[in-house]
Design goal:
Layout (H helix, E strand, L loop, with lengths): L8 E7 L4 E7 L4 E8 L20 H14 L9 E8 L10 E2 L2 H9 L8 H14 L5 E5 L9 H4 L5 H6 L9 H14 L8 E7 L3 E7 L2 E5 L21 H8 L5 H10 L2 H6 L4 H9 L3 H25 L4 E5 H6 L1 H8 L11 H5 L6 E2 L8 E4 L4 H14 L1
Parallel strand pairs: 1-4, 4-6, 7-10, 10-12
Antiparallel strand pairs: 1-2, 2-3, 5-6, 7-8, 8-9, 11-12
Helix pairs in contact: 1-3, 6-15, 10-11, 11-13
Bound molecules: adenosine-5'-diphosphate.
Adenosine-5'-diphosphate binds next to helix 10 and helix 12.
Length: 395
């Protein structure tokens, strides 16, 4: 096939625990041809209907709906212009440390990692299986959320527990949000007019899930999420760091079961647990009305952020930029200002006027006097997955 006739479109599938997001990109010009989301998987409504707003039965049905939506727009999976399918996969363990061309053996490898990501990897696997059934001839690529953190040195990746026990159960810091970190690190370096290899960054990915990552010369050297995405920062519904003995205490004294505690820490904590709502916009609205719970949630959230900025400043030694990304990081000037307030001793000074300007492009919000740049960089995980997928599919 001549160069000009080679297909350039990549379908990116992000199969979450209760939703499937998709984007179709043309890598010839990185344009977005279609995007959408099928939500409320597993909440199917009456009479087994798969249409409308009733949700869908399972991930296989959701994938079939995605295929149907694309076909309805003349962009079906059978299109010869489709070059590859890229799948976001949450957990790659220690085995998958980069984008991987999917084979039966790779699917089996991702299946073996289900105990480490019981909510996410099964959904990812279903996405892969259905897409492979629909287009067995097409290259399909797995892009792992953990992969960017494979470079974290042992001193930061190891928990200080008995080594044999830890190794038997695969217990170590894996880290997540890797695809976002990879994209944002390069974009932040470009914003600074430097090569990624030249800059040290603290990347704060603050979405519903939230993580801090220390990036030295384009490479992750420490991150706040650990064995699972529960550790580290305060999140929408996750607690982030707690004393592990809280778990024993809740079991022994509170009489709670393992699953109940899991649900408490993952689904009923964070902003929701403290402030009554998981959305930072609503926390802001309630704070403005004098709601003390919302204020406390905000204060705990920014205190934890500040702690990690300090810790990762020490890990990196020299920081060129603190980079905010994802829903809260890109949109909440209040969080950015509060998290970095009083850090001029670390060379970090936010400019209140620049910080208040809203925008969708990458921008600096630090003061001229700030030794460390403070940047807001919109993340684009789908584009990063599409790039990785296309590069591997083309060979
Ligand atoms: P996900 O982690 O699900 O990909 P996002 O990165 O889209 O999530 O972040 C979603 C969160 O971003 C919302 O729950 C909300 O708290 C926050 N958010 C979005 N817009 C704003 C805003 N204008 N101000 C403050 N927070 C916002």
């Amino acid at each position: 096939m001549s160069e000009a006739a080679r297909p350039t479109r990549v379908l990116v599938l992000n199969s979450g625990s209760s939703s499937v997001k998709y984007q179709l990109l043309d890598m010839a010009d990185q344009s977005r041809l279609a995007s959408g989301v099928v939500e409320r998987i597993g909440e199917k409504g009456d009479a087994g209907r798969e249409g409308g707003d009733d949700g869908v039965a399972d991930h296989a049905a959701a994938l079939r709906r995605v295929a149907g939506e694309l076909a309805g727009r003349g962009l079906g999976l059978d299109s010869p212009e489709l070059a590859a399918v890229g799948h976001r996969v949450v957990h790659g363990g220690t085995r998958f440390t980069g984008p991987t061309l999917i084979t039966d053996e790779v699917v089996a490898g991702i299946e073996e990692l289900v105990p480490l990501a019981p909510l996410h990897n099964p959904a990812n696997i279903t996405g892969i299986k259905v897409a492979r059934e629909l287009r067995p001839d097409l290259p399909q690529v797995a892009v792992f959320d953990t992969a960017f953190h494979a470079t974290i040195p042992e001193a930061a990746a190891r928990y200080a527990i008995d080594t044999a026990t830890a190794d038997r159960h695969g217990i170590r810091r894996y880290g997540f949000h890797g695809t976002s970190n990879a994209y944002v690190s390069r974009a932040a370096a470009a914003l600074l007019g430097r090569e990624p290899s030249e800059v040290n960054l603290i990347v704060l990915h603050l979405g519903n899930g939230a993580s801090a990552t220390a990036v030295r010369g384009g490479v992750s050297v420490d991150t706040s999420m650990g064995l699972t995405p529960l550790e580290g920062l305060v999140m929408g519904t996750r607690s982030g760091d707690v004393d592990p003995a809280v778990v024993f205490h809740l079991a022994r004294v509170g009489g709670m079961g393992t699953d109940e505690i899991d649900t408490l820490l993952n689904k009923r904590s964070g902003l929701l647990g403290l402030g009554g709502v998981n959305d930072m916009r609503e926390i802001g609205r309630r704070m403005a009305e004098g709601d003390e719970r919302a204020q406390l949630a905000f204060d705990v959230y920014v205190h934890r952020l500040r702690r990690y900025v300090g810790a990762f400043t020490a890990v990196l030694g020299r920081v060129d930029a603190v980079v905010f990304t994802a829903g809260v990081g890109e949109n909440s000037a209040a969080v950015r200002a509060a998290a970095l307030a009083g850090l001029d001793g670390l060379g970090i000074v936010v400019d209140p006027v620049r910080n208040a300007v809203r925008g969708s492009a990458g921008r600096l919000v630090s003061a001229e006097s700030s030794r460390v740049a403070v940047a807001v960089v919109p993340t684009d995980e789908e584009l990063e997955i599409a790039r990785d997928t296309y590069a591997l599919a083309r060979g």
